[in-house]
Amino acid sequence: MPTIYDVAAACGVAPSTVSRAFSRPGRVNAETAARIRQVAEEMGYRANPLARALPTGKTSLLALVVSDVTNPFYFEIIRGAEQAATEADYTLLVADVHESATAERKALERALPLVEGVVLGTSRMSDSAIRVMAQQRPTVVLNRVLTGIPSVITDNARGARRAVEHLASLEHRNIGYLAGPEASWADGMRWRAMREAAEMLDLRVQRFGPFAPTLTGGGEAAPVIAASNVTAVVAYNDLVAIGLMRGLAALDVRVPRDVSVVGFDNIFGAEICSPALTTVAAPLAALGKYAVQTLLAGMSSRTPPQVRPALLPAELVVRDSTARRARRRRS
Amino acid sequence: MPTIYDVAAACGVAPSTVSRAFSRPGRVNAETAARIRQVAEEMGYRANPLARALPTGKTSLLALVVSDVTNPFYFEIIRGAEQAATEADYTLLVADVHESATAERKALERALPLVEGVVLGTSRMSDSAIRVMAQQRPTVVLNRVLTGIPSVITDNARGARRAVEHLASLEHRNIGYLAGPEASWADGMRWRAMREAAEMLDLRVQRFGPFAPTLTGGGEAAPVIAASNVTAVVAYNDLVAIGLMRGLAALDVRVPRDVSVVGFDNIFGAEICSPALTTVAAPLAALGKYAVQTLLAGMSSRTPPQVRPALLPAELVVRDSTARRARRRRS
DNA sequence: CAAGTCATGGCAACCGATTGCCATCGCCGG
DNA sequence: CCGGCGATGGCAATCGGTTGCCATGACTTG
User: Fold this and answer.
1) pLDDT tens, position by position, B286-320
2) At what angle do helices A15-23 and A4-11 cross, to 10 degrees?
3) From the alpha carbon of B31, which nucleotide's C1' atom is closest?
4) Which of A 1-60 have CB under 7 A of nucleic chain D?
5) Which domains does chain B have, with CATH numbers?
6) What is the rounded CA–CA span in Å between residue B287 and residue B194?
7) How far apart are the C-alpha atoms of A53 and B190, rounded to whole Å?
């Protein structure tokens, strides 16, 4: 690999001039610069990003920390984030932390010195740990609010409201909520919004769980729901909802005939499962993209910007897992 | 951030000694080393990976290039790869190239100087381009064979054979294959193995397509299949198979009653779609893990190892999308 | 006791870029 | 004709580790 020294020698100029020909366009004579670039091109010169990063700190690397890469929730987020990063000439480092707070710390420890900024997808770390992190590197948090730290969140309240309204319009009066992890900020939001919406519409809501935010977790909820008197269920997320539907099917409870089910997030899979899942669609790609853009914005301006969390709209996608309440529950 | 110079000053030794205390355990007096480590610990010293990487080239970074992060095919591969990387104290850089050869080149160009090695998930690049790449950095190719370059592949031939045998045992005599992208190495393998297996069992196979390896691609295949005389279809991959099933459902062709469908890969979604998909399960996590391990092995030994591609077994997972051939096709 | 070996630590070059500061030169206005 | 300014290019320090080589001193061995 040729270096600026090689190019400089070939051009008969100093290395610093070569460097400036690339990074300080106006700083060097136009003709000289053109000649240098020409020669560099011919020699196949590429700047070594490590060498550049050492004195400047500009690695052009951003980290996206996700709790579980195999969770379809992240697919579109990753893609959106990567797109925004690429557009800004950054490379995205996706770190999977396997739902473990310790793995998360280790992954961050490893990646932090390399990256210029961090996007924390639904982190399992404590607020204070995140704040410590945010002092080391510009940070944006996804789907969680920490005062003082920029965050991008889905408008879950609105989504939950839509879901409850939808169920109410189908004459459900008795709704269940399948709770996710206690530590989940989104879970709290969703539950609260549901309760409020239910109160407005004069419905009854019950909380079940917590359950693991996985297919298995949803499956475990099935007997609980089957034994309850709710005619509709809103699940913490799509994975749980799908797991629940499969569990209910195994118990011979039909969806949506006997029980209506609504999920959250609209992940890949919500559409292909059977019955296709009615769900509150989170703007996943936009979430990832906007998070990275916010991060980059915060990195370029010296002043910590954006005090308020950015709220991205959620919409209800009605599919086949919700239906008008049956006259009576099956025995 | 304290540096080795700070630690050295605090200990009254030379920076080189501090460096060796960490990287050359035996090279420095045990007591001195212990003292240095102690002081370093107290000062919160962390080696700067950039500074270390500059002279040594050891970035502890590996790249995994995937054609599309949102393709569920990659989820487990990514996880397996990341696990193997983490175990070896490496960090995995996942690059999404959006199914575009040019984006792939650009992403590689950006990442290559940073990483010590590359795993190419189903690459869209030409063989020669890959060979050029492989000269720059140790490379392992996934699901594709290039002589001279280590590769890890699924035993598609065996999988395809199993699929055909399964269909034969269900009395299907007339089988269709939904082809994937022309450029796909796996597509060629699967089709060839199917033909051979069909010949052995005295079945008839027809090739349809190519179709895009997506849900949409599968949907587009539905009318073609409906109009054909095959009673069973093997699709290029699960995404196509699921798309096909949805398309057939829309045309009122029932699966598996009218047509049996088999996919490839056993992605997330194969299990939750309806009917649950019978598919040739690729050992996805193992594939990713083994690819990284092969890469690391190749990096440590100076000699290019492993001439033969590693063949990982594929198994048929029988679910609900295949059934005994009906007496007659619906009109 | 002399010569050789080993353990230990320091010096300084090096990786490849960036950048503050200085030198040179041409040109301009006074 | 002189002082000053802008344009241009070079020098050398710097980022933070790594490592080849050398110096020192202790210990072993014949």
Assistant:
1) 999 999 999 999 888 766 666 688 999 999 999 99
2) 110
3) C8
4) 12-17, 26-30, 32-33, 54-55
5) 4-47 (1.10.260), 61-154+284-312 (3.40.50.2300), 156-282 (3.40.50.2300)
6) 22
7) 46
